[in-house]
Design goal:
The chain has 9 helices and 23 strands. It has 353 residues and is an alpha/beta fold.
């Protein structure tokens, strides 16, 4: 049997499995899915778990079942590309004939002293559970600071406001406005929503260090009961440790077929891959579907045909009743994008579950 090992059961990993098994999977191929947990966590909704408006169970999708699919649970510690081995923390190494690296991302702290030690994270299921505990144990009228005014920071602040109307919530952002990657009209809409719901925003904040109970903007101490880090991401440490060419964001350089150029049996998808899209669940899923088509073509002995990946847009929520989005070049605001986001979540659960 040829072993096709997939590292990571997130959006890219599950889309990879579906693309393989739905396309006449050769009988001599065994797919091995490796993940630290026995289910997919819906990462795009971790902000709701952190705020307390969604339960842990609500954000789980069971992994699929297939006669040629084996699941291995545990922590990956390293990848030996020369020996074609995946090393595990407390288990035997896994040999592979083909490998997909779809391990996602982790927080990027930009070398800021104390940021990792004294802020809370929403990058993993485990860290988000701890963030939920921290935020919801804060006494009434406590101070919460969200470091980073991108999509995750905005959604976390809005959801926490809905969960805890008693707290003082502030977004600290280094730019001139929240959602700097979006059109200014969307930023203005979100800023107005924050003003209407007593969420503060502070721009041009350059966080230089974090201590227990304080975030420092230069010499200014901003006192806090809890700080949540949404100030940047990077590929996971296993990818960081690979001595291979990477882009400025630390993502692995790949060829047109999403292979490592010097190791064509290894494919990289999602947040670990240098692709012309911002890291997102949608980009990971779309790339995985394309890679599955490439692999089936290679197995048939055909030349793979590459289609251009087209993303449908980005949606964000402001609590349960409002949202915003960018569909192509069209900005959408209000109730409709929130309903659309709920619909996408429902479809995702139905599709993967």
């Amino acid at each position: 049997m040829r072993k096709f090992v997939i590292l990571g059961g997130g959006y890219g990993g599950l889309a990879m499995i579906q693309g393989l098994v739905n396309g006449n999977l050769p009988a001599d191929v065994e797919i091995v899915l490796v993940d630290r947990m026995p289910f997919q966590g819906i990462k795009t909704e971790y902000y709701a778990l952190a705020a307390g408006t969604a339960s842990d169970f609500d954000l789980r999708i069971p992994f699929p079942h297939h006669s040629q699919l084996t699941k291995r649970y545990g922590e990956v510690t390293s990848i030996d590309l020369e020996k074609k081995l995946v090393r595990m923390e407390q288990d035997e190494p896994i040999e592979y004939d083909y490998l997909v690296i779809a391990l996602g991302c982790t927080d990027r702290y930009h070398g800021i002293p104390g940021a990792e030690e004294f802020t809370s994270s929403i990058q993993t299921f485990s860290s988000t559970r701890k963030t939920y505990q921290r935020l919801n144990d804060i006494k009434p009228y406590g101070q919460v600071h969200i470091i980073g005014g991108g999509l995750s920071g905005v959604e976390t602040a809005a959801e926490l406001r809905e969960s805890r109307p008693d707290l003082n919530i502030t977004i600290l952002d280094r730019g001139s406005r929240v959602l700097s990657a979006f059109p200014s009209t969307l930023s203005a809409y979100v800023e107005q929503w924050f003003r209407d719901h007593d969420v503060n925003t502070r721009s041009h904040i350059s966080v230089c260090r974090v201590e227990e109970g304080a975030v420092y903007n230069g010499d200014e101490a901003i006192y806090t009961d809890a700080a949540v880090w949404t100030g940047g991401i990077q590929p996971v440490k296993i990818v960081q440790d690979l001595d291979l060419p990477k882009d400025r964001g630390g993502r692995l350089l790949i060829n047109e077929y999403s292979q490592l150029p010097d190791y064509p049996e290894v494919f990289v998808i999602g947040d670990c891959a240098s692709i012309p899209f911002a890291p997102s669940a949608q980009a990971a899923g779309a790339q995985a579907e394309q890679v599955a088509e490439v692999i089936h073509a290679l197995w048939r002995g055909d030349t793979p045909k590459i289609h251009k990946i087209r993303l449908k847009g980005t949606l964000g929520s402001l609590g349960s009743k409002a949202g915003f989005g960018l569909m192509g070049k069209t900005s959408v605001k209000g109730r409709v994008p929130r309903i659309l986001k709920s619909g996408v979540l429902w479809l995702s659960k139905r599709h993967f579950g």
